[in-house]
Amino acid sequence: MDALARQISEQPSMDPMEMKLAALAPRPRTVEETGLSQNFLQALIAKHLYDGGVSTLRELVARTLLAGSILETVLALMRSEAYVEIRGSVDGTTALRYGLTDRGRAFALESLMKSGYLGPAPVSLTQYIQVVQAQSVHHHQVTQAQMQSAFSEIVIRDNLLNQLGPALNSGRAIFVYGPAGTGKTYIAQRLAWMLGDPVLIPHAIAVGDTPIQLFDPIFHQPIKDPEGTPHALFEQGYDPRFVFCQRPAVLTGGELTLDMLEISYEASTKVYQAPLQLKANNGIYLLDDLGRQRVAPVDLFNRWIVPMESQQDYLNLASGKRFPVPFDVILIFSTNLNPSALADEAFLRRLGYKIRFGELNAKEYAAIWRQVCEARGIEFDGELLRYVLEELYGSSPRPLLPCHPRDLLSMALDQACYLEISNQVTKEMLDLAWQSYFVGLESDKS
Fold first, then answer.
1. Overall average pLDDT of the 209-214 stretch
2. Where is each AAA+ ATPase domain found (predicted)?
């Protein structure tokens, strides 16, 4: 047993998940173990001192998420180069306080001109690749029992689950299609829950000495402990430069452009931001409303051909440097349009799984209606449901879609609030909701 494994095994407070994380991303104890250069760390510390002013070692640890022993090594070198000096203690404390010298401030400004990144120390690209591969979405196999359990509270047909499960196991891109309102987006996002344990997401990665911000609170949801604080095994060996998160589920719709799939560089702040597919690594990337984007579908499909087949993507820095990154993503295309109108047969064949979401039958519609009533605190009324199915849908034939119960009942409750009637729904309210919700057929008759 090596020293690291012995150190981990001797910590009784660590549960199996904590031990797994500590082995996957052990907390670095030396500069060499960070995977970052001395020059990069000096520049990062100088920027933090310039931004935060005179700081204690504890404050710098909180800013950089590096061990105190590493910071002491770098600060000692910075003192020898006259970048940093030790200031007097305050309030009777004995903690050393570090501040920049005039030369150090000039160095910090020069460093900020090169890169405006001011956050936790990044992890090296090499380490990031190793962690992504260890957490791969392709390592977890989904079973029928797991799918049925995960979607037990959702009204969804077994044959649809029996298509989605094998599609996840295949590791190939998935194409889901069908009318708007059939639950494609909602179900696709929940599939991220089926991909195994939560994962480690770095705050940033470093390509050479260039940091790229990766963690994004929009897409990355940290796992919280019972007290409600983010889970961070700061002292047990888990590298806090990573955040322990739910597997990401990245969603983009009609706003997507090809530029969003490349590294972005903000010239005013001099900060690099990771593209969407990199933020989706170890999870799901859902391209919703396919065909509604400002970019032609064929161009969008062509962007994914190499990553889908090789599970590797290539990105470029503003300097022109090109480098490979893992493409460990379940890619899901979703559209309301006819798939054959968006892509040729050759590309559709590459996707493997084409899954249609369709309309509901009356029994399924009723089950969703009951769920919405329970969630919104409305007393279920079978006669009211019969009126909706037979009278409203009967007089104006429309497909039964999963979104209709939620939307119609929500609009009826809007009227109840207006009339100061607490959580009561009547036929008259549903008539008005129906007239407001649907357009076309009714107005054509008037």
1. 97
2. 170-357
Give the position of tokens 């009318």: 179
Q: Which two tokens stand for residue 249?
A: 């589920």
- The strands making up 55-56's β-sheet, listed across from edge to edge, are 55-56, 97-100, 84-87
Return the number of other C-beta atoms located less than 10 Å from residue 259's C-beta: 10
What is the set of domains in the chain, with CATH numbers? Answer: 37-119 (1.10.10.10), 125-356 (3.40.50.300), 362-445 (1.10.8)
Question: pLDDT-derived band of residue 377, with 50, 70 and 90 as boundaries?
Answer: very high
Instruction: Kindly list the distances between the CA atom of residue 91 and the CA atoms of 13, 88, 94, in Å, as whole numbers in the listed order.
Output: 35, 10, 9
Q: Which residues have a Cβ under 8 Å from the Cβ of 307 and sit 6 or more positions away?
A: 277, 313, 327, 329
In a 13 Å sphere around the CA of 296, the CA atoms on its Cβ side amount to: 4
CA distance 40 to 204: 14
pLDDT in tens, 58-82: 999 999 999 999 999 999 999 999 9
DSSP string, 378-442: PPP-HHHHHIIIIIIHHHS-----THHHHHHHHHHHHHHHHTT-TT---HHHHHHHHHHH--SHH
Q: Give pLDDT, residue 446.
A: 36
Radius of gyration for the chain, computed over Cα atoms and rounded to the nearest angstrom = 27
Q: How confident is the model at residue 440 (pLDDT cuts 50, 70, 90)?
A: low
pTM of the model: 0.86
Asked if pLDDT for residue 335 goes beyond 80, the answer is yes
Reported residue count of the chain is: 446
The confidence score (pLDDT) of residue 14 equals 64
Give the strand pairing for 249-252 and 84-87.
unpaired
Tell me, what's the pLDDT at 236?
A: 56
